[in-house]
Every structure is written in C-alpha cells, then in structure tokens.
Amino acid sequence: MRHAKDNRRLSRTTSHRKAMLRNMVTSLFEHEKIETTEAKAKELKREAEKMITLAKRGDLHARRQVEAYIRSHKVCSKLFEDGKSRYNGRQGGYVRVLPTRVRRGDAASMAMVELVDEGAAK
C-alpha cells in the first residue's frame, strides 16, 4: 500500500529519479522554460519552488542547500541574484505548468514548465 506517500515514482529507481529531477531543476533555472511530461512537470514544480524559497531567504545555509541540489554554480548564482528581486512580493506559485500537446510516439501528455514573471529580472 502507498498510504501517505506523496511523491510520484515515475517508473524509476530512487537514485535515477533524484538525479533526473536535479538535472531538470538546473535546466529550468538556466533556460527559464522547459517541456516535459505532465507527471515529471508536477514533480519538477515542487522541487523548483523549494529552491526559489531558499533563494529568497538568502542566508548562507540556504545557499549551501541550493548549491548541494543544483548542478551548476553559475545557475545557482543567477538564482540567488534574481530570486529576491524577482519574487519578493510573491508568497508562492513561482513555477507554472501548462499542458501543451500529446507526444506522438507514446501518446504521453506533455507540459511546459516555466518561471512566473519570466523576463522581469533579465
């Protein structure tokens, strides 16, 4: 039984799932918009919002937590520089998931994941 288990397994082992989500979060902050399946997008949103909340906090411990998760120092620096000014007045909902299309090969529902207020701090 899966009572009180709140994350999706995405048909992957734990280590593969964690690595995939870390890569996707890094790509999202680097490109500010990515397309993936809906299930992955929903899990990505959860992790990305946690990283933005830590960046808004802005202290040393938060920076070290984000550096441990995000795979690029450049992307992490960008997140901490832009995070406070970009999302200061927002209490949550930093990431948007928009359904886009059905993938032709396997009929998977695709979704666009993007940062809200995109371009505000460029």
Automatic annotation (TrEMBL):
**Keyword terms, alphabetized:** Ribonucleoprotein, Ribosomal protein
The record's InterPro entries line, in alphabetical order, gives:
Ribosomal_bL17 (IPR000456), Ribosomal_bL17_CS (IPR047859), Ribosomal_bL17_sf (IPR036373)
| Record-level GO BP terms | translation
Q: What PROSITE patterns does this protein map onto?
A: RIBOSOMAL_L17
**GO CC annotations?**
cytosolic large ribosomal subunit
Q: Name one GO molecular function term.
A: structural constituent of ribosome
Per the record's keyword annotation, is ATP-binding included, yes or no?
no
What is the similarity comment for this entry?
A: Belongs to the bacterial ribosomal protein bL17 family.
> Quaternary structure?
Part of the 50S ribosomal subunit. Contacts protein L32.
Q: Which NCBIfam families match?
A: L17 (TIGR00059)
Q: What is this protein called?
A: Large ribosomal subunit protein bL17
Q: Which gene encodes it?
A: rplQ
